[in-house]
Amino acid sequence: MNIAKALFCLLISISLTVAFNQQWGTVPAFGRLLSPFEGFWQNAEAADAASEEKSSVKGTREEVTVLYDDLHVPHVFAKNDYDAYFAQGYITARDRLWQMEFQTHAAAGRISELIGDRALELDRYNRRLGMTYGAEKSLEGMSQNPVSKSVLEAYSAGINSYIDQLKPATYPIEYKLLGYAPEPWTPIKVAFLLKQMTQTLAAGADDLMMTNVRRHLGPALTANLFPDYPFKEDPIIPAGTKWDFTPLKVPTPPTNSETDSSVALNWQPHDPAIGSNNWAVGGQKTANGYPILANDPHLNLSLPSIWYQIQLVTPTMNVYGVSLPGAPGVIIGFNKDVAWGVTNVGADVLDFYKIRFRDNRRLEYWHDGKWKPVRRRVEIIKVKGKPALSDTVLYTHHGPVIYLPDEKPFRNNIPTGYAVRWIAHEADNGIQTFYLLNRAKTYDDYVRALSYYSAPAQNFVFANAAKDIAISPNGRFPLKWHDQGKFLLDGTHPANDWQGWIPAAQNPRVKNPPRGFVSSANQSSTDPTYPYYINWEFETTDRGMRINNRLSGMQKVTIDSMRRLQNDVFNHQASKFLPVLLPRVQETGLTEQQKQALKTVQQWNYQQDTASIAGTIFMDWISRLEHDIWADDFPEKDDQPMRFPNSDRTLQLVTEEPNARWFDNVTTKNRTETIGEIVTVSFQATVDSLAKRHGALGKTWAWADHKGTGIRHLIPGLDAFSALNVQIGGGPRIVNAAGRRAGPSWRMVVQTGPEVSAFGVFPGGQSGNPGSPYYLNMLETWRKGDLYELLYLKSVTEKNPRIKSILTLSH
Amino acid sequence: MLPFLVIAVLSAVAQLFLPWWSIAVVTFGVCFWRSRTGWRAFGNGFSGIAVVWFVYALLIHVQTDGILTGRMADLLFKTKMPVLLLLVTPLMGGLVGGFAGLAGRQVRAVFAAKP
User: How far apart are CA A53 and CA A726, in angstroms?
Assistant: First the structure.
């Protein structure tokens, strides 16, 4: 009897303990997670107290001192460059290890390893896109340069020295929630991170949809509705700027470049809130006579914060700015002589080639009149709780074949049976650009630094204390015939291959233009006189025009006036559309509520602020109107995805072509709709659907609530670690581009001069730990549109009340 | 009282070096060594662990202004009340400790019953 009792109690005790020590599907191991000695409690952090901490780490060459300021920004003082990058790796990992590893796992197609086969298709997609192949090539490129190689090694060693100090109780909380452990860092992870950026910013391609459009409408109408230069534009390089080089011969298009498309499903619209602003104002227009530079890159807002502020000081540099956790150096920032920033170019650097295989064995493909061998690359995808999968990817000289004709594509804009030629597959050494910019003193240093840059192509804006300002849409641009890659390409003709490269020295660039400022907001890089093809379509010019209008009218510019411009919520698109649309609304058939809504919009001052009701109505109306105009002309078919003309073309249509056939709804027989009807009906439907969602016209329609800006943790659905419904104005195509999910991920304003002075903020905090007071501490400042002064220290002995704690690294 | 104190001190020390489940080993051992009844064994095991976990958790909660406790309560229980975690944490540790203590006492009884 006693034995039975004892066994029973033992059984209960052991099962209970084992059950709490075990992860059940997505439910974490509660014993481990809740233990105050080992679980999440150990991740709770207090604010930095005045302290001097000495950390003994293997790998530094001399002692490194890190001063943390009141925002937990590290100021690294090292006696040599190796130690500086080592320390950057070490302290970035201290604040961001999980994020650094997770992002590189994602880029490498390794998420299934962490969460199981739910992520399998995503992983397979990344493998097929050649992310690993590209990262290996990049690493090759970086390793060939002894300086880049040493930077990478130092940075990786620093991260690893931090990982070596960890034990399960001190792992970042996400490891505890998902139930895995950090692995050693390797230099290729840096390459993966940069590939991830290239995928976010330079992997867009409408080639398939455009091909379907051309087949549906024919070449002439396609050219008319999808023109190569916008109706309204104010390009980055001011129109009329003369090119000071003799261009290479631009390849001529082959006589027949048509190809057909295979299957695919619906198109996922891209988010116009991904884009960025930057500008530099020359000394003649500033209050103190020295240039001011401003930058706010817009990305999908996420937590842990995308950027990590850092100051790096060695005998060869003293630079401050934001870094990407996982990459050495400062990406956007300033030193005592220069400041620089970036926005995305949106170059057409990803093209699809239709591959003709010899037979179903797919060992050879046809190109340039002969059969060429297909190379095979086996990708092993590990899956949590299941056996690993292997996936064979076929490589042609164009690049990897993303999907074969009989496979279902993961993303709908990828054609099956096509190889992808992508800039991210080239060997490059992008970190060299930032290495040089971090140390730059003159305009020539900036030009030299840019020559090393490959992808994702960026508009690099520049200003220095010697009173130069400049901007350059810069990257490695393939030399193409005009519109090459606007449509799918036939992979058998060599004339469709990329024909070399635009020489780096001939990338568009302008220095000290007469208007006294330079700017970019992802609009067209140049006017049509630039001899080379970069892309046929860029972001709409709304933000760009608004910025240029404001800057043109400004004198005696200060940091504060630049800060206000970054937070400008004037809806430029509305200011162009509404004067044309409002007179077209037929008031006779409107309900009381619709009339009231119309009045609200008529009285609007175009300020897309948090409380704006008219702003809410306009934003919904314009997208409904575009849908109503175009949806019948570009019918949705599962296997033939198409896209609509862009909003610039729609603006031209409603402004200049009120009798165009496109206003007629072709699905209604025996009836010809007019522009007035379509404008009125879409307005009515907008108001009705808003009333259905928010109740009667009133405060509940306020823009910020309707939009619901959210800054979300990288793990989907982890709302408890996210900031939701952030009350901020602005939105897509507005200078303050805070959209639902994307927006200004960093705002910086730098006043150059004898004493550089800089301000900045990002929506989140320095720490990636949700249990730290520095996880979201900057959010409110960002939301209000304020900036923090960035503490630029000259020497390690400088006494500043903002310095809170000191960390010394030595072996 | 003695087993309770011994469990509290030993388990706290053990957890500084060993995984969380060492609490089960400690309470089992202590109650095997010394406990009068099954109820007492459970009680000592439960309270010895729960008190330590509660005090430590409370200390962390207060020192860090409850930032993480709040987020975790939201994540695990969809509530903004961090106090719930301050109750659930010791309850869970206590249950593991209590049952291990009971098992220790019952196993001891097997040996004690033999001549």
Answer: 36
- Token duo for residue A445: 């240093």
Residues A805 and A72: their CA atoms lie apart, in Å, by: 9
Average pLDDT of span B59-71:
94
Length of chain A: 811
- The per-residue pLDDT for A268 is 41
Complex confidence, ipTM:
0.95
CB contact under 8 A, A43 and B68: yes
Measure the CA angle with vertex A697, ends A696 and A700; round to 5°: 85
Are B99 and A35 in contact (CB < 8 Å)? no
> Which CATH class for the A575-707 domain?
mainly alpha
pLDDT in tens, A95-118: 999 999 999 999 999 999 999 888
Phi and psi of A571, rounded to 5°? -90, 90
* Residue A68 in tokens: 């943390």
Active site amino acids of A: 276
- Convert chain B into a string of H (helix), E (strand) and C (coil): CHHHHHHHHHHHHHHHHCCCCHHHHHHHHHHHHCCCCHHHHHHHHHHHHHHHHHHHHHHHHHHCCCHHHHHHHHHHHCCCCCHHHHHHHHHHHHHHHHHHHHHHHHHHHHHHHCC
Number of domains in chain B: 1
pLDDT > 80? residue A547? yes
B-chain residues within 8 Å CB-CB of A5?
A: 106, 109
Interface of A with B (CB under 8 A): 2-3, 5-6, 8-10, 12-14, 16-17, 20-21, 30-32, 34-46, 168, 173, 718-721, 770-773, 775
Encoded tokens for B19: 């995984």
Binding residues of A for Ca(2+): 348, 351
- The rounded distance, in Å, linking the Cα atoms of B26 and A690 is 62
Residue spans per domain, chain A? 575-707
Task: Nearest chain B residue to A717 by CA: give it.
Answer: B75
Question: What is the 8-class DSSP label of residue A569?
Answer: -
Which residues of chain A have a CB within 8 Å of the CB of B24? 13-14, 17
Contacts of A39 in chain B (CB under 8 A): 20
Cis peptide before A253 (omega within 30 of 0): no
